[in-house]
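User: Please run a holo structure prediction.
Assistant: Happy to. Please share the sequence and the ligand.
User: Here you go; the ligand is N-(5'-phosphopyridoxyl)-D-alanine.
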Amino acid sequence: MPEIAYINNNFIPLEKAFIPINDRGYLFADGIYEVIVTRNGKPFLIKEHLERLQRSADGIILEMPASLPELSEIIETGIRKAGFTETMVYVQITRGIEPRRHNYSAKLRANLTMTFRPHPEYDPQLAQGVSIITVPEIRWSRCDIKSISLLPNIMMKQRAVESGCQEALFVTEEGLIHEGTAGNIFFIKNKTLYTPQADQYILNGITRSYILQQAAIHGIKQIERECTLQETLKADEVFITSSTVDLLPVVKIDDSTIANGHPGPFSKVIKNFFP
Ligand code: PDD
């Protein structure tokens, strides 16, 4: 099956999809995005993803080029056309195309593109738990916007990978944990689920919200508040969540082993919340 792209209102083979050099996404990373995966062939939590896309658009004062029902229909059509068992849909909206200048024309029309690629099967090795590193929080104070401007994230993810680790955790000078480069962080202590509150310093993950909602249904006590690195290192379990990994148990942070170095029971229970 070919990987496909949605561009200029058409579905075409991915390798034939090109963006004009004056796209402000290319020039300035002036845009927003979503990553949506399918489960049992259906886009998982699509409504929540599209509502967040709208919030990101509002956050950067960008007029959406299509309504949420229209976007939903394009996504469903792309998934059908691609025909993969499970699909990873990448949706990007940039401010539009015009010669490079920091400010932009009021009349500029946003540019909508998508890609449809196979969603790789979950690597069972990851279920054994991963090691992560901590890195200084060097990002801006609107991390609640899902912006394509991700230079700090990619630099720190690269640092993690080059250190043989799976993720990097942003930690403030005050020792507060925020999130990973591409996922939210949780820990369990004394059967209670902790995660940093969804303020402007983290992306409020769709997976994060889903887990909190499911945990409440299953009677797991949960606390959203400022969380320190020190207490995370002493947690019973730690995990990272995102649409692409669901739940990734963390068994080592820098040189500290978490609990006994193996994923704990809550990580397994919560992983089973996913269809
Ligand atoms: N990233 N925090 C950051 C910084 C992220 O980039 C992501 C997801 C999340 C988790 O969000 P969600 O549960 O809605 O996927 C949190 C996507 C997967 C990416 O950039 O590829």
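The domain at 124-271 is CATH 3.20.10.10 (D-amino Acid Aminotransferase; Chain A, domain 2).
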